[in-house]
Amino acid sequence: MLKPNQLRKALTASVPLLLRNPDSLNVFIDSGRIVSTLATSLSFEYQYRLNMVITDYTGDIDVLIVPMLEWLRVNEPDMMATKEKQQTGFTFKADVISDTACDISIDLLLSERVIVQRIGDELHVNHLNENPLPENDYRPLQLYAHGALISELDS
After folding, report:
1. Residue spans of beta strands (DSSP E) within 1-131
2. pLDDT tens digit sequence for 27-63
3. Cβ contact 46:114 at 8 Å
4. Which of 16, 38, 83, 131 has minimal Cβ neighbours within 10 Å of its Cβ?
5. Which residues fall within 8 angstroms of residue 63, CB to CB, at 6 or more apart?
């Protein structure tokens, strides 16, 4: 599975609090399953709930959520495509620790398609990317909150 580490890297690079303290971001994979059929190949799909816990978060929650939505738009676009997935695909809880800090738990329903090809006596495994966004989809490069530049985003 590739997406948990990809999302961790994207958040650590774009959320200042996580850049300073990456150990406050904990990632867990819950309720995972493999979906496969009796097709001629061994291709399959990972389906799982990714749980991310950010401890002692003191920043603006928008600064955490916006880069996550940016990542999801590219790496899990189905989550934004249907009413059902919009309601269940991205949920969160927060434990308020003090006036300035909280622990945030975020659950994401993710999937990854894996193609397995037989070439002679060998099996070759390749993870598929999501379908690309339309070419006219504008990708911002900077994140602002309350008028202040927070971080630079990868293109």
Report:
1. 25-36, 44-57, 90-96, 102-119, 122-127
2. 999 899 999 988 888 999 999 999 999 999 998 899 9
3. yes
4. 38
5. 15, 16, 17, 143, 145, 150, 151
